[in-house]
Every structure is written in C-alpha cells, then in structure tokens.
Amino acid sequence: MAQLEVRNIAKTFRLGTGSKARTVRALDDVSFNIERGEIVAITGPSGCGKSTILRIIMGLETATQGEVISRGMKVSGCGYDRSLVFQHAELLPWRSARANVAFGLELKGVLPGVRDVITDRYLSMVGLAHAADRLPHQLSGGMKQRVGIARALAIEPDILLMDEPFGALDAQTREELQNELMDIHAQTQKTILIITHDMDEAVLLADRVIVMKAGRVDTVLTVDIERPRGNLAGLRGNAEFGRKRLALWERLHDTAPTSTSTSTQAA
C-alpha cells in the first residue's frame, strides 16, 4: 500500500457574484501515489494547481471530486499523520523556538517530560539546540524555517508536506537547507512531498518529480541518482543530474515529447 494516494482529484472555485460570477477549474482529475520513504517534488508554472493539491492533501481544502487516502483511510480534514511546512515559517511570535516546536505536541496532549525530549531532539536535528530559547524576532530567516521544519517533524507525521519551503530564502541559505533536508531524510526516512518552482531543487531532492500544467499531471520524471547525492554545487557537474534537469526543462517548456526518461503515468 502506498503511503499516500491521490485519486482523481478535481477542484473548482466560484469567483465573483451575480452576473459576473464564474467558475474556475483549478484541478482536473489529478492522480498519483507516494511510496513510504520517498521524496516527491511537484513543479509547474504559477497557477497550475500545485499549492491547491497540497492544501487538499493536508485537509485545509476540500476537493470538488476525488479523494486522498492516507494510511489506508480517506482524508477528511487535518490530521497528525500529515504535517505542513509553509513558505514562511509562520511562528508564534510570543513563543521561543523550543515552545514553537512543542506547539503541536501540546495539541496532541503529549506529557511535558516526553514533549521536552522530542522537542530537543528535533531542534538538535535542525542545528538549533543553541537557539532554543530565542524568540522568532531574534532568529534569521533560515533559522525560522528550521524551527518550522522541526515543528512539523516533532508530531512525527507519516508524511511531511512542504510548500515552497526555501523559496523566500537567499541562495546560500536555500542550499544549506536543501542539504539539511536530505540529511534529515537520511536519518528519519520520512516520506516527503515538496512543492517547488526550482528545477535544480526538484532534481536534487526528489526521487520523482511530478510536472503539473493547467491543473493536471503532465509528466512524472523519475530521478534515479544514487543517494547520498551531495550538495547542489557538486551535482551540477554530474552527467545524470544534467540529463534529468534537461528532461525536466523540456517538459516544463514543451520543447520535447515525453521520452524514455519520463513517464506520463502518475503512480
């Protein structure tokens, strides 16, 4: 059984009122599976439905049709089996880094002693044990995002959902966090679904890249580069990385038909 199954999801929105109202179809028959321990990236042009499908998977929005299956059960709202990392960390400004990481555990009713152990573990995992008592305004952008990742991991979800988590960071910090995410995956074997506009990031991180266009799955590109993959600077000289990136670029820009390096099957 797949870790997560997205089955024939469609989503329509009604915009405007009265005679000016119109219906917009944001997603149209989207289906794909994610296997346990896999990293899958979704990419595509702005407005193609990437973030909408992520919000439906998280349970923040309801599909017009279709269903999402997590742990063999239909998703109906948010649950502790799924956790979301936002583009901006969205930390509670009055709580320290430690208290922000512990927030989900408090909602779960985890006892304080156990909560402290789990919180310290994930703060250490993201390299912030030294900053546990700092408030968000005392943290850099990269540090805030590390707190957001630790908070999402602390509830120990089956799947970690990430909505362009590094998109607002400078290039150096983004590459550092990409490398740290790969280290976290190596330690935890966490199933990860990440939304990204960055082709390099998609090929660096993912086992498969789902290309979406106009609300549909266009192509699924398999990235079979052996792990550990090293950093992005090193991979740019890797021939297989170059081939996969070119294949992704071609699919995004409609400059080549689906080839043997891609698949139109989403499962």
Main sheet attributes: strand count, strand direction, barrel closure: 7 strands, mixed
Radius of gyration: 19 Å
Share in helix = 25-40%
What is the number of strand segments? 11
In DSSP terms (H or I, runs of 4 or more residues), the helix count works out at 8
Helices and strands, in order, run as EEEHEEEHHHEHEHEEHHE
- How would you sum up the global shape? globular
Residue stretches low in confidence (pLDDT < 50, at least 5 long) are 259-267
Structure write-up:
With 267 residues, this protein is an alpha/beta fold. 35% of the residues lie in helices and 25% in strands. The protein has eight helices and eleven strands. It has helices at residues 50-58, 97-108, 112-125, 141-154, 171-188, 199-205, 232-235, 239-253; strands at 4-15, 22-34, 39-43, 65-70, 73-74, 82-85, 159-163, 191-195, 208-213, 216-222, 262-263. The strands form two sheets. It has a seven-stranded mixed β-sheet with strand order 6-7-8-3-9-10-11, with helices on both faces. The N and C termini lie close together (12 Å). 39% of the residues are buried. The model is unreliable at 259-267 (pLDDT under 50).
